[in-house]
Design a protein that fits this description.
2 copies of one chain form a homodimer. Chain A has 428 residues and is α+β, with helices and mostly antiparallel strands. Helix content of chain A is 32%, strand content 23%. Chain A has 14 helices and 21 strands. Chain A has helices spanning 2-5, 19-26, 43-53, 58-67, 72-95, 110-115, 125-133, 161-164, 166-175, 209-213, 217-228, 305-310, 314-327, 336-348, and strands spanning 34-39, 99-104, 118-123, 142-146, 179-183, 186-191, 200-201, 235-236, 244-249, 257-258, 261-262, 275-281, 287-291, 294-297, 359-363, 378-381, 383-388, 393-397, 401-404, 410-415, 421-425. The first copy, chain A, has a 7-stranded antiparallel sheet. In chain A, strands 8-6-20-17-12-13 form a 6-stranded antiparallel sheet, with no helix packed on it. In chain A, a hairpin with a 2-residue loop joins strand 10 (257-258) and strand 11 (261-262). The two termini of chain A are 25 Å apart. At the A-B interface, helix 4, helix 11, strand 11, helix 12 and helix 13 of A face helix 4, helix 11, helix 12, helix 13 and helix 14 of B.
C-alpha cells in the first residue's frame, strides 16, 4: 500500500497494491541466478535469409541493395551495433555469476520462461512484445534493453544510458534502487460461430499445413455445430495484449488445399476494405459501425499505435483554431508557438499510465452515413465487446498474433490484475 | 470556354475547355445506339459462390448465416432490390431502341468498351470504379446508376431519383438537359529496380500461376538487370486512378510455388507494419517518412477514402478548441452547435471538385521521431514522387488494382488532361 502511495496522484480505479505487492517492496532486490536473453532479428539478418532463400549469395545481396539505393553497409552497421550491445549484456550478466541463455526469436518458448528467473529483451519494443507474449506469471520479471538506441524508440526498454552501461543497471537492481512496474495487459474472450482460437504468428512468416487447413473450418465447424446443437461458451485466448488489440479486415491469404493441391487462393487487400462490426462499451447498447478498424489499448499501448492513430499535427490544429476563431468572431494571433502548445497538450491527453486499470478504445477512420454512426470515436472503458460483421477480419494482438474474427464471432476485451506484466522502472 | 464559365468561381489552374469540349457543348445530346450495362456482384451472390465452393448448399448457407446472427433474407432482399433496378435500366434502354449488353464484373473487358457507345454502371461506387478502370477514351461516356440507394452512398452515381425513374434520365440526356463532367484521373509512372508492372486485380479473388511466379521476380529481375546493365526508364502503368492511389505495406500472401508445390508462403500483416518511403512534392526535396501509408487523390476521390482519413469528429474539435481557449485565456461557450459548425467547415475544406486539375496527398498516421519527420501531413500538388523503402508494399489504385512497390521502386503520380473520364452531370 505504501509503495503505491509513492506514485503520482492516482486516477480513480487504480488498484491498491496487493499484499504481494507490499511484500515485494521490502524484497525489492533483483538477484536472478538464471537469465534468458532474447535477441531480435536484425534487418540485415532478415534480408540475408530472404535472399539466401531465393538462391542469392551475400555478394548478390550487396549488389541488389545497391541498385535499390539501399545501403548494404548501413544494414550491416546496424546489425553490428546490435550484436555488440548483446555481447555487452551477456558479459555483464556473466560477470555477476549469472547463468545466461541467449535465445533468438524462434528459440524462445515457454520452457525458457520456466527456466529463467528473469528475462532480458535485447532489441527494441518489438522484441519486448515478443518476450511479454510468453510470460503469464506475475512473478517473472521482464527487462528491456534497447540495442539500437539511434534507430529504435524503445518505449518499453530501460533508459538508453543503460544500453552502454548495463553493469550500472545490474548494480542498481542488486541494491534495490528501482521499483517494480506492473503493466496492465488485455485479456480476450472469443465466442460465437466460426471462431478459431488458433492464432497465426505474424512474425513466423510461415503457414503450416494445419493453418492452411483451418481455412476449411467454416464448413467443418458449422457442420459440427449443427450436428451437436452446441452452444458456444466464451473461450479465453492464451494471449495477453501488452500494447493493444486491433480488429479489422485483413488480407486473406488462405490457400485452400485439398489433397495437397491448391484450390482457390483468396487475395483481398485490407488497405481499402472497410471493417463492419458492432460494438458495446462497458455493457452499453450495441452500435453498428463501419471503419478502418478498431484499436483497444492499455496505458502502455497508449504511447504506441493508438497514439499514432489519434495524434494531431500542427497544421490540423491550426486549421481548427482558425475556423473556430473566425466563427466566434475573435482575432487571437495563432503563432507557431501557440499552435505547438495546443497540439502538444492535445497529444499528451492521448497517453495514460501503464498501471491505471483502464483501457482506451479508438475507432480508426469511422465511416458515417445513413446506415452507420459513431456516437464516440474514442474513450476510456473497462470492457469492450465487438461482434464481427466482417468478411475476412482478424484480431491482432501486439502486432504479433492474429486471430480470425469473422462474421458472427464476438470478442470481449477486458483487464484483470492477474494478467499484469512485471517490469522494472529504473531512473536515468 | 463558355461552358466552363458556367461553373462556380474557378481555382487557379483549372483548364480552359478544349476545342473538343466547346464542340461537345453544342453537341450536348446523348443518343447512344449501343450501351453496355455492367452490374455489381451482390453480397448474396458472393456468399453463395463462397459457400457453394466449400461444398455447402443454399439451405446450409441459410442456417450458417442464421447462426452468425446474419440474415439470409436480408441479403436476398438487397440482391432482389438490385436485380429489379437492373431490369428497370435495361428495359428503359431497350424501349428507346438501344442495343443493350448486360455484363457481370468478370465479363466486362476492353472489347465491351470498344463495342459500346456508352457504359452504364449498375451498382454502387465500386462498380463505377470498375467501369472507369477499363475506359481510356475521353469520348466514351460513363454513367452510374445506384441500384441500392438505401445502402450505397453512390457519390459517383446519378441522383437517387433516377434509380426508379431511369426513362426520365434518358429523356433529359436525349434533350441535352445535362452537362458533361470530365473527371480528373491520376496517372502513374513506375521506375527503379524490382518493379513489376503487372497488377493484381484485387476483386478477382484469384491468383493465377503466373502471378504466383511473379513472386520470384526479385531474383530474376535483379539477375537480368545485372546482366543487361539496363537502366530502367519510367514505365507508364495502364491504369488511371479515378479516386486515389494508396501506397503502403501490404499483407504479402504470395505463395511461392515450385513445380506445383508450395515453397514458403509468406504472411505478414499490413495492419501493424509501418510503411517506409521517401516523398517529393512538386519536385521538392526528398523527405524520409514512416507512416501507415500515403494517399494521393483527385477531386473525385477527395470525397472518398481520403476524406475518411482526414475528417475530424466533433469530440476532437471540441477538445482542440477547449485547449486552445484555455491557453489563450478565453471563455467562449463551446456549444454543441458551435462545435458542429467548426467541424463541418473543417471537413468540407477537405473536399474539392473533380475538374480542378490538382491532386491532394495525405499521409496516414505519420510517425515522427528522431529519424523520420513530416513537414506537411497533407496538401495540394501537381505531382508526387514516392520512393519505396518498404519490405512488401503495394500501390493500390481505386481499391481494385494492386502493384508491387518494393524497396527501390519509384512512383510518380501526376495528372494529364488526356486521362479525364467523361461522365454526366444531371440535376435532380
Amino acid at each position: 500500500m505504501a509503495y503505491r502511495a509513492l506514485l503520482k496522484p492516482l486516477r480513480p480505479g487504480t488498484r491498491v497494491a496487493s499484499l504481494w505487492g507490499a511484500r515485494a517492496l521490502s524484497e525489492r532486490k533483483f538477484k536472478p541466478e538464471k537469465v534468458a536473453v532474447v535477441t531480435k532479428t536484425t534487418r540485415y539478418e532478415f534480408e540475408l535469409q530472404r535472399y539466401r532463400y531465393a538462391g542469392l549469395s551475400e555478394d548478390d545481396l550487396k549488389q541488389l541493395l545497391a541498385m535499390k539505393g539501399s545501403s548494404y553497409s548501413g544494414l550491416l552497421e546496424r546489425h553490428n551495433v546490435h550484436t555488440v550491445h548483446v555481447e555487452h549484456i551477456v558479459d555483464s550478466l556473466q560477470r555477476e555469476g549469472i547463468q545466461v541463455r541467449v535465445l533468438r526469436r524462434r528459440e524462445y518458448d515457454e520452457e525458457a520462461v520456466r527456466w529463467a528467473d528473469a528475462i532480458v529483451s535485447a532489441g527494441g519494443d518489438g522484441t519486448m512484445l515478443l518476450v511479454a507474449s510468453k510470460v503469464f506469471d506475475k512473478d517473472k520479471p521482464v527487462l528491456g534493453v534497447n540495442t539500437d538506441p539511434e534507430r529504435s524508440e524503445g518505449h518499453l526498454c530501460l533508459p538508453v544510458c543503460y544500453t552502454h552501461a548495463f553493469p550500472e543497471a545490474l548494480r542498481k537492481l542488486r541494491k534495490g534502487e528501482f521499483r517494480w512496474q506492473w503493466r496492465d495487459r488485455l485479456r480476450l474472450h472469443l465466442e460465437g460461430t466460426g471462431i478459431n482460437p488458433t492464432p497465426v504468428d505474424l512474425h513466423e512468416q510461415q503457414l503450416s499445413l494445419a493453418e492452411h487447413n483451418q481455412a476449411h473450418r467454416i464448413s467443418t465447424e458449422a457442420q459440427r455445430r449443427r450436428e451437436d446443437g452446441a452452444v458456444s461458451c466464451p473461450y479465453l485466448l492464451p494471449v495477453r495484449g501488452l500494447n493493444e488489440v486491433f480488429i479489422g479486415e485483413s488480407l486473406s491469404s488462405r490457400s485452400l488445399h485439398h489433397r495437397g493441391k491448391p484450390l482457390k487462393p483468396h487475395l483481398t487487400l485490407s488497405l481499402h476494405r472497410a471493417s463492419y462490426y458492432e460494438i458495446s462499451i462497458d455493457d452499453g447498447p450495441w452500435e453498428k459501425q463501419k471503419s478502418s478498424g478498431l484499436s483497444v489499448c492499455t496505458g502502455t499501448g497508449s504511447k504506441a499505435w493508438s497514439y499514432n492513430i489519434n495524434k494531431l499535427f500542427e497544421e490540423t490544429v491550426k486549421d481548427v483554431l482558425t475556423i473556430g476563431q473566425t466563427q466566434a468572431g475573435l482575432d487571437v494571433p495563432l503563432t507557431q508557438e501557440f499552435v505547438e502548445t495546443v497540439t502538444k497538450e492535445y497529444n499528451e491527453s492521448l497517453m495514460f499510465g501503464p498501471e491505471e486499470n483502464r483501457l482506451f478504445f479508438s475507432i480508426r477512420e469511422p465511416i458515417v452515413n445513413r446506415v452507420y454512426s459513431t456516437s464516440r470515436q474514442r474513450g476510456f472503458a473497462s470492457r469492450v465487446c465487438v461482434r464481427s460483421r466482417c468478411w475476412d477480419a482478424c484480431m491482432v494482438v501486439d502486432g504479433g498474433m492474429s486471430f480470425e474474427f469473422n462474421d458472427g464471432a464476438i470478442a470481449t476485451i477486458s483487464l484483470n490484475e492477474e494478467d499484469q506484466l512485471r517490469t522494472i522502472l529504473l531512473k536515468d
